[in-house]
Amino acid sequence: MLLAPFFVLFAVVMVLPIGYALWLSLFTEKQSGLGFGGTETVFSGLGNYTTALGDAAFREGFLVLLGYCLVYIPLLLAGGLGLALLLDSALARARRFFQLALFLPHAVPGIIAALIWVYLYTPQLSPVVKAMEAGGVGFDFFSPSGALPSVVNIALWEWLGYNMVIFYAALQAIDRSVLEAATVDGAGAWRTAFSIKLPLIRASVVMVALFTVIGSLQLFTEPLILNKGTGSAVTSTWTPNMYAYTAAFDRNDYGLAAAASVLLALTAALLSFAVTRLAGNGNREKKSKERKARKERTA
To answer: What angle do CA 8, 248, 225 make, to 5 degrees?
Structure first.
């Protein structure tokens, strides 16, 4: 009885929409009478899926996501871990201030953050661009080569502080006696950070990596804002999510949009499984090594 409200809400906002999307992806609308008649909904089976996979714009969207993930995920994890380790170190001062300052960008809604950065990217308006040009550094944030770094920068600004807080909380939960023992054994700050702290917060790192992979595949808000009236190289089908949005609300092809969304969801599920699988294999190898070491000490 206590779990029933959760399952009802889960079914209404998750299961039913997913089921409806799957059902919708199997149908398409066709016009009769050489385009002069009304539209009728016909069963197309996997036709929408083959159409999406056969569209070069949809496939290129996954290549954009691949480049985005290869740049964004390592920077986010390394940056979040680095900041958390710095705040957790004995040399850190004003921890509360820096936690709040680094977390504040995450409190800004994604659309507002994207609009702020569009202003900072626009040459005619941005003091940042003017300062770069005065220093002899020229970079077009809206060019084909600058679009991806521009989006990565916005996402890092939004999420770096959030992940830093997660890592910092995990570091604070480490038993201080373990760190004191490492110091007594002669471990320096770097050795303690990489050999003691990081292995002990492995679960948090895996969790953040998993959520980051899923979130990266859903990239939508930042490129959508860059696409609206900035002259950016970001097109209306730049990512799979934008492709589905354009198919649904610009072309009124809801079957194709549903099929594209289902394909993206399957990709996210497979990558999530791969991340958890790799993390599980790493844990098993670690435990196996620990058992062997105990047996050798016993012998």
So the answer is: 95
Residue 87 burial (10 A CB sphere; 0-12, 13-18, 19+): buried
Residue reference for tokens 């029933």: 4
- With both helix axes pointing from N to C terminus, report the angle between 254-298 and 16-24 in degrees, rounded to the nearest 10: 130
Q: How many CA atoms lie within 13 A of 85 on its CB side?
A: 20
Q: Which of 96, 14, 83, 69 is nearest to 209 (CA)?
A: 69
Helix (H, G, I), strand (E, B) or coil at 160: helix
Whole-model pTM: value is 0.86
User: Residue type at 178?
Assistant: V
Angle at 200 between CA 198 and CA 204, to 5 degrees: 80
Helix (H) or strand (E) holding 27: strand 27-31
Instruction: Tell me the per-residue pLDDT of 15-61, one tens digit each, with 9 for 90 and over.
Output: 999 999 999 999 988 766 555 666 778 888 899 999 999 999 999 99
Instruction: Determine the distance from the C-alpha atom of residue 125 to the mean position of all C-alpha atoms in its chain, rounded to a whole number.
Output: 29
